[in-house]
Design a protein that fits this description.
225 residues, alpha+beta, six-stranded antiparallel sheet, 16% helix, globular
Length: 225
């Protein structure tokens, strides 16, 4: 009985102290549509909360075509990746968008939901429209609960395209709990674009493991009495 309790307690502590990583494959996304365009979304098994540190990595295959003449939604919070810009300003939502020169905001990688100097849309890596490249792309995003900082970066065919870092006061979504993600690329043709794998890692707070250890210690003390 005592040995069983010890083993169970150690397993419990290990689960609390180790980061949780979940990998979502391409076929786990649900087909949907927005404003007549094909989109995809997924409900996360564990929400991304501002109370803990977390990171995500999205790996893409690109076919050199954008969703429409204005661009594509690389990744967004929620189930609709094509909401208008006004829906992201000063809200708990975000959208990574790759725009073309036809959208009036310049060619390149853009973010909605991240406050800029003018509280408006800002373009990163404007010299490169990554969705006109055939090949692969990687989007990385992380939230550090200790420094209250959100960071992201995007690369295309192994080359860095753009990156940025926001402190909590500049990141409207820092108080949000993200329960689903979505995207909209060019899904047509013989080689449709795809988000191949999404890897999400959630790091538990150190206090969580500490409280768990105290709980186990209390159980042992009670057992010894």
């Amino acid at each position: 009985m005592k040995k069983t309790l010890i083993v169970s307690s150690l397993v419990c502590l290990a689960q609390m102290a180790v980061a949780s990583t979940i990998v979502y494959s391409a076929n786990e996304w649900t087909d949907s549509n927005s404003a007549g365009y094909a989109t995809k979304y997924i409900n996360l098994e564990e929400a991304l909360s501002s109370d803990v540190s977390w990171s995500l990595t999205a790996e893409y295959t690109l076919n050199g075509l954008t969703m429409n003449q204005w661009g594509s939604a690389f990744l967004a919070s929620g189930t609709d990746p094509l909401l208008e810009q006004a829906n992201y300003k000063n809200t708990t939502a975000f959208q990574y968008y790759v725009g073309t020169s036809q959208n009036g905001n310049g060619e390149g990688f853009q973010t909605l939901g991240f406050i800029t100097e003018n509280n408006d849309l800002k373009t990163y890596g404007a010299s490169t429209n990554i969705l006109t490249n055939v090949g692969t792309a990687t989007l990385e995003m992380s939230w550090d609960v200790k420094t209250e900082t959100l960071s992201w970066s995007i690369s295309s065919n192994g080359a860095d395209v753009a990156s940025a870092e926001f402190i909590k006061s500049d990141y409207a979504a820092s108080d949000s709990e993200i329960t689903s993600l979505s995207y909209a690329l060019n899904f047509t043709g013989n080689t449709p674009a795809s988000l191949n794998t999404l890897t999400v890692t959630i790091v538990p707070e150190p206090t969580t493991a500490s409280l768990g250890l105290l709980g186990v210690a209390a159980l042992f003390l009670r057992r010894r009495r």
